[in-house]
Amino acid sequence: MSTDRPTVLLVEDEPAQREVLAYNLEAEGFRVVQASNGEEALVLVDEVSPDVIVLDWMMPHLSGIEVCRQLKTRPETREMPIIMLSARSEEVDRVRGLETGADDYVIKPYSVVELMARVRAQLRRSRPATVGVVLEWDNIRLDAETHRVYRADKVLKLGPTEFRLLTTFMEKPGRVFSREQLLDRVWGRDIYVDTRTVDVHIGRLRKALCVFGGDDPLRTVRGAGYALG
User: Fold this and answer.
1) N or C: which terminal CB in the chain sees fewer CB atoms within 10 Å?
2) DSSP assignment of the chain
């Protein structure tokens, strides 16, 4: 299973509400990872590196606001979009949620349709290719909708795996991805693939990108992984 589908981490301690939300998110084409409390959410964030987090404010032990605060103070998770769900409709609570770093704030009871629209809006920022945006870096252009890649206006032939790898890099230029993160994003958590497979496909991607000449845009970071630029 490939993970072209964007990943939503859903953090909600009410099982019935969590199931309804998960069902609707999956129906919209998202890959959903569920957490029933704040501690579990923090562990899963490191494991799955979600594209969007839908986070309930009121949870026992570790509240959503505290989870949000912790994630927004860590450099590696600071950019992850967080949509806070709360029954607190007072303006002071909304302001507190946003000041803690939440990117959006949705008051319960909410319309599922509206929540889906807000998730997609956050995705445009975190994973633009999933909503059909054309990505450009240096002289490389990737059109997610037509599945075409150009370098200096010449069409490149990429296999599906190489295309997904390049998409991952072009959505976050300069960011170093470990082999494990690339496996999760490109191949999916549900299947076992050896980390050396990543190196093989990186080699193929490099070859495809440089078929008409030009410098290799991919950087190998010893002991860490790979990055674009």
Assistant:
1) N
2) ----SPEEEEE-S-HHHHHHHHHHHHHTT-EEEEESSHHHHHHHHHHH--SEEEEES--SSS-HHHHHHHHHHSTTTTTS-EEEEES--SHHHHHHHHHTT-SEEEESS--HHHHHHHHHHHHHHH-GGGGTPEEEETTEEEETTTTEEEETTEEE---HHHHHHHHHHHHSTTPPBPHHHHIIIII-TTS---HHHHHHHHHHHHHHHTTT-----EEEETTTEEEE-
